[in-house]
């Protein structure tokens, strides 16, 4: 498990006074501002964020030390991370995406299918991408209890009940 979790990203400038467009990956989007300073992926930059208002796709926000549109635009694409110990504990049936990526995926018969390589959410629920040698392309499966009945983080594996190919 990673000791840092990505909880948002800077999508570029908002306006001309140094505000940024901020995408939150938190289950309660406004919580992104409550975790204190966030950092870049490499940990070299620290960001003190204040949300100013909701906008389409996220929030407008101020970042301490950013005062111009050019400075805000320079941060476009920056992922925002927080130390895992500053995040809340999750119930047994919920997982941080970072903990699922890299897990081995087995079918219900115990045969290795592949590895979880990404998780997507386009608004209708989480989708697991599993890289595999069994198929020509990666598998994209809904992350539901019916399709993924077992997640064992300690063992580094998930069990996947693959739908019949005839369905």
Overview of the structural elements:
The protein has 167 residues and is mainly β. It has 2 domains: 4-86, Elongation Factor Tu (Ef-tu), domain 3 (Beta Barrel), CATH 2.40.30.60; 97-160, PRC-barrel domain (SH3 type barrels, Roll), CATH 2.30.30. The protein is 6% helix and 41% strand. The protein has 2 helices and 13 strands. The protein has helices at residues 69-74, 97-100, and strands spanning 4-13, 20-24, 38-39, 46-47, 49-55, 58-63, 79-83, 104-107, 112-121, 126-132, 139-142, 150-152, 157-160. The chain has a 6-stranded mixed β-sheet, with no helix packed on it. The chain has a 5-stranded antiparallel β-sheet with strand order 5-6-2-1-7. The longest helix is centred in the middle third of the chain and has 6 residues, at 69-74. It is elongated and about 55 Å long.
Summarize the structure.
This protein is mainly β and 167 residues long.
Large-scale geometry: elongated
Number of strands: 13
Distance between the termini: 35 Å
CATH fourth-tier homologous superfamily of the largest domain? RimM
The proportion of residues forming helix, as a percent range, comes to under 10%
What percentage of the residues does DSSP assign to strands (E)?
A: 35-45%
Indicate the mean pLDDT.
Answer: 90
In total, the number of domains comes to: 2
Topology, pairings included?
Blueprint: E1 4-13, E2 20-24, E3 38-39, E4 46-47, E5 49-55, E6 58-63, H1 69-74, E7 79-83, H2 97-100, E8 104-107, E9 112-121, E10 126-132, E11 139-142, E12 150-152, E13 157-160
Parallel strand pairs: 8-13
Antiparallel strand pairs: 1-2, 1-7, 2-6, 3-4, 5-6, 8-9, 9-10, 10-11, 12-13
